[in-house]
Protein: Acyltransferase
Amino acid sequence: MKIDFAPLDTSLNRRLQTASVLQWVYSFLALAPTCIVLFFYLLFTRFWLISVLYVVWWYFDYDTPSRGGRRVPYLCRLKLWEHMRDYFPVKLVKTADLDPRNNYVLGFHPHGVLVAGAFTNFCTYATGITQLFPGLTTYLLMLPLWFRAPFFRDYIMCAGLIPSDKESARYPLSKRKGGNAVVIAVGGAPEALDAHPGTFNVLLAQKKGFIKMAMEHGAHLVPVFSFGENEVFDQVGNPRGTWLRWTQEKLQSIMGISLPLFHARGVFQYSFGLMPYRKPIHTVVGRPIRVERNEKPTAEELDALHQLYMEELSNLFDEHKGNYGVDKDTHLNFV
Structure:
């Protein structure tokens, strides 16, 4: 195989962009295991006290992830994230105001392989979320598993990530003064297995938990579609019914995380590797769907709002697809 190396005269700015995305990919794929190994390694060195003191800290800080986490705005504003934004590039597109007197549940679609758009737009300030939606604080949900990794849990909380269990997700929505938005990649880990370039499969047909949560708290629903999310990685073919897909789904049901066999480019060459392609991501935030507080919605009320949400998401996709290179005859496929 011929390897297409990056030119030696690549500008410093592009190299910084690549470095910023490299650290993000590493953080997403390998930082948690690294932190776990470091924690236990330190116990058998003269620095053992670090791990011991961390256990004490962890004991007193255990509930913080489920109580809104611990975002550090300074870290969200780092120049590092602007380089990551410009690598693809990523852009946040506003279609309507979100009144900060209300709380919101933002349904993010599609999940993609590594949810690059969700992280860049809602965990950093690089794409201007604080200017586009003033007074709104976003919380991106992440698998609770990652909050059990020492050191790593503190790192991800700095960016506004919180666990995706019900207790954690409901905490920001329970604040009556408003101004909180929970961002949910609705399709979750299973949808990542469908993240192939040129596909628009949305795992939503049976996903009603986030709808019910919005109704129980009177939080308005906001559909979000991220054009280009599925384009930044290639994935080994895994149609439903194949042995590979069966294995991936089985592992996902056991471990809670999916294992898409993805690939793209490398750091110093463009032929293979785990670095995403430089392809644009446009995350379009739709109009809010007003939701009245209903602590005990009936099945019919839940189904009606779920159907309305799917229609609004489909309309959002159809309204904007022409702006981002999607064929006019293409429609969302609800799975």
Q: What stands out?
A: Residues 12-334 form one domain.
